[in-house]
Amino acid sequence: MPNTIWIVSELFAPDDAATAHLMTQIAEGLAAESEGSQYSVSVICAQPTYTSRGQKASRREIINGVQINRCWSTTFSKDRLMLRAVNVVTIMMTFFVKMLFRFRRGDRVLVVTNPPPLPFVATLAAKLRGARTYLLIHDIYPDVLVPTGFTQSGSLPYRVIDFATRRLYQSVTRIITIGRDMKKLVLQKNPNLKSKISVITNWADEQMCPVPKEDNKFQNQVGVDNELVIQYSGNMGRTHGLNIIADAATILEQKGIGGVRWMMCGWGSGKKNLEQICTDKNLQSVTILDPVPREDLAALISAADISIISFIPEMSGISVPSRMYNILAAGCPIIGITEPDSELAQTIFDDDLGWVSPPDKPELLADLVVQIYKQRSELADYHQRCRNAATTRYTKTNSIQAYYALLSEV
Description:
By secondary structure, this protein is of the alpha/beta class. The protein is built from 13 helices and 14 strands.
């Protein structure tokens, strides 16, 4: 009987959250790569809980060569902390039982870092069953909890989680980060782990491509002719610092500088605050749209001249925005509001794919936008470079082959 490559993730299709989408593509890509080899590919995941909440999926099924095993858990609202904790506890219990029964000696287990207890549970089950654990880091704990205000660096909860995380890193077979800044942060904590860390970037959806403006259904929503359209699309959470965009828009309007349209589209805890700011300041240059389905993303991004990805300070190494690869594939240059050593900034610098501006400096962002507006004739070259980078450097094929090479190594 062949050994199994296990993908362990709470989120998986039919959920359409970013993690679910990526882990589904990894599983199906590995299944295609391993066809005819010594490995089969299986998944342990939860029932749909995010975009497909309430939808009941089969407990076991095979889709695109992947054996999917879904575990039961409570599905209380994630908006209440105690109920969310109950969900996590039940998920961990059912996952652990499933893994103990399914893992076998020689299997490879790829586990993602969300929810935070999951890699600990998966590593324990793998160790008990003689399987190898490969840790895919999407968020670095406890560091991600500091900018969001959940704890302080040096506090007792921080030190406890940090100690446990260091032990986890030491116990797994290999570590995969999705950015160079993440690798750097892990090595700062654990200098002796250099030989076991690999960087495998995310990628753009294969169907993502530029949509001509004359065929674009969003074109009539983005502004008037000759406006420079700067778009933010995606999650509007605690770490994304959307206030800097509203502040930059305010600066330009107060100076009487027109010709710029800020197009905001997304969801999350920061959206209501952004809407309130725009109302209070009577910002005329900001348009806020509802989220769009994934199949409309290419058209939405293509309707803009530039996309913007923003972070609050001290997020370098903690989070890498997967959305930037879809933005590049749509041929859209990026303004990155981020530290210069972040993966977002380094990606922009590598191939001259846009501009980088520091967090919490709205006046610099406003000045940058004015500069770009004056040099709009150069945007066509940026569009071409972005599209080329997405189709040659940041492809699903490249990343899946890297995953398979790592997981199948002797």
